[in-house]
Amino acid sequence: MSDTADTQRPTRRLGTLMQLWPFVRPHRALAAGWLVFLAISSSATLVLPMAVRHMIDQGFGHSSLATINATFLGLFGVALVLAFATAARYYCIALLGERSLASLRSQLYAHVIRLDVGFFERSRVGELISRLGTDTEVIQALIGSGISVALRSAVMLLGATAMMVWTSPRLAGLTALVIPAVMLPILVFGRRVQRLSRASQDRLADAAAVANETLNAAPAVKAYAREDIESARYGGAIARALATARQRIGMRSILTATVIVLFFGAIALVLWAGARDVLAGTLDVGVLAQFVIYAFLAAGSLAGLSEVWGDVLRAAGAMERIGELFEERAEITSPAQPALLPRPVEGALRFEHIEFHYPSRPDAPALYDFDLTVRPGETVALVGPSGAGKSTVFALLLRFYDPQTGRITLDGVDLRALALPELRGAIALVPQETVIFGGSAADNIRFGRQDADEHEVREAARAAEANDFISALGKGYDEELGERGVRLSGGQRQRVAIARAILRDAPLLLLDEATSALDAQSEAAIQQALERLEKGRTTLVIAHRLATVQRADRIVVMDGGRIVAQGTHQSLLAEGGLYAELARLQFTA
C-alpha cells in the first residue's frame, strides 16, 4: 500500500492545480492573449539562429555588404517583434495572475468566514491567515510567472528540438541520447522537492500561528514578562521553517545543477562531433552555428523547466492546503427550504428537554434534560457556578451548535427550520468579551446594523452612555479605535457593544455579563439603558453578580447543565439551596 500511495500522491498533488481553473476561467481573454504573444515571441526567437546561419553563409562567405545590411536589418526587425511580444506576454500573464489570485483570495475568505464556530474552535487563526496570505502568494508566483516560464520553456524546447532535427538529424540524434539521463534526476529529485515544499509551507504556517497568538495577547505577554520566552518560541518555529526550507532549496539546487551539467555535457559532445564534421568538409560552419544556437536554446529551456518545476511542486503543495479549506463544510447550515418567523416576532422561547455535548468533550454533557419556557417580553436571568451551562444556552440559541436531543423553538418555529440570517437577525448579543474592530467608532457601532444612518448611530451611543467619551475622541465618531479597541478602556468597549445591541433593535436580547467591566457609577447608568432596551423584548441575562439580576422577572439557577431552581430573587432566597448559598457568599463578602 505504501509504495502505491507514494507513487500516486505526487500525481494527486499536481492534480490539485486543476482547482485553479475556476479562478482563471473568467479571464480567458488574457490567457488567450498570453498564448498568442507567446507563440509570436517563441517564433521570433526560433528565427534568430536561421538569421545567424544566413549571415555566416551568405554574408561573410560572399563578402556582400548588401546582404550583410539586409541580414542585420532583418535581425533588428525580429528583435523588435520579440520585444513587443515579450512585453505583451508579460502584461497578459501578470495581470492574469493578479486577477485570478484576487478571485481565489476573495472566494477562500468568503468560504472560511461562513464555516461554523466548531471549525474555528479546532483551527488556529494564524494558520488560516498563512493560507490566505503565504500560500496564495506561492500560487500567484506560479500563475503570474511560473506557468509563463514553464510553457515558454516547453514551447522553446519543442521548437528548438524540431529545428535541431531539421538542421542536422545526425547531431540531433547524438543529443537525444542524453535526454533519458536528464529526465531521470527530474523525476527522482522532483518528488522530494514536492514533499519538502509542502512541509516548508506547514512550518511557515506554524510560525505564523505562534506570532498571531502572542501578538494578540501582547498585554498578557508583557504582564508575565514573557518577551524573551515568546521570542525564543517564535525563533524556534522560524528555525524549523528555515531548516525545512534549506532542505528544499538544497534539493532544488542539486536538481538544477545536475540537469545543467548533463545537458551542457551533451552540447559539448555535439560540438565536438560537429567540429569534426566541419573539418572533414561534410558540414557547413553556418549549419553548425545554427545547430549550436538551437541546442543552447533547448538547454536553456530545459534548465528553465527544471527550475520552474520546483515552483510548480511548491504551488501544488500550497494548493493542496488551500483545497483542504475549500473542502471544509459547515455542520450548521440553513435548511434548503427554510421556514419564516411569524411577523412581528414576539420572542417566545422554548427549550424542550435539551441534551448537548460539545464536540471537543463528547463524554461530558454541557446541558442535560434542560427544559425551559420563556414568555414574550420576559426577562430571565441565568445564574450558577462556572461550567453550569449558561453560555451554552446562548450558543444553542444562536445556533452555533445543535443539541443532540430535544429542540429549541422561537415563536413556535424550530431553530433548525430557520435560515441562519433569519434567526440571528432576530437576536442582539452583548458578549462578555467585546470585540472591537480597527475601524472608526461609528463603524464599530454600525456593526449592529450596517444600514443605520449617522443620527441612529449617535442615538444608540447616547442610550448606551457612550456618546460622551466618543465625542471626546480627537475625531469623534470618525476616530479610529485601533486593533481590538486598544484606545478604549474595558468599560468603554462594553458600552460600544451595548450601543450595537440598541442599534440592532432585535426582539430577542442576550446579555452575557453586560456590565462586568464597568465601575459602579457607569454600571448604574448602563443599567438604566439596559432597562430601556429590555422593554418589549425577550431578554436572557447571564450574570455572576447577583445584584445585577434582582430586577429580572425570573431567575433560573443552573448547575451541572441542569435547572435546579427558578423563581424571583426573594423566593429563591427563602427556598435556600444553591442560589441562597451564592447570595450569601456575594452579599456578605
UniProtKB/TrEMBL annotation:
**Keywords for this protein:** ATP-binding, Membrane, Nucleotide-binding, Transmembrane, Transmembrane helix
Q: Does the keyword Transmembrane helix apply?
A: yes
Its domain of life reads Bacteria
UniProt key word Transmembrane? yes
**Ranges for domain ABC transporter:** 349-585
Can you name a GO cellular component term?
plasma membrane
What is this entry's stated membrane topology? Multi-pass membrane protein
Q: Where in the cell is it found?
A: Cell membrane
Output one GO BP term: oligopeptide export from mitochondrion
**Transmembrane residue ranges:** 29-52, 72-96, 141-165, 171-190, 254-275, 287-305
A Gene Ontology molecular function term of the record: ATP binding
Which CDD domains does its entry note? ABC_6TM_bac_exporter_ABCB8_10_like
The ABC transmembrane type-1 domain covers 35-314
Checking SMART domains in the record gives: AAA
Q: What is this protein called?
A: ABC transporter
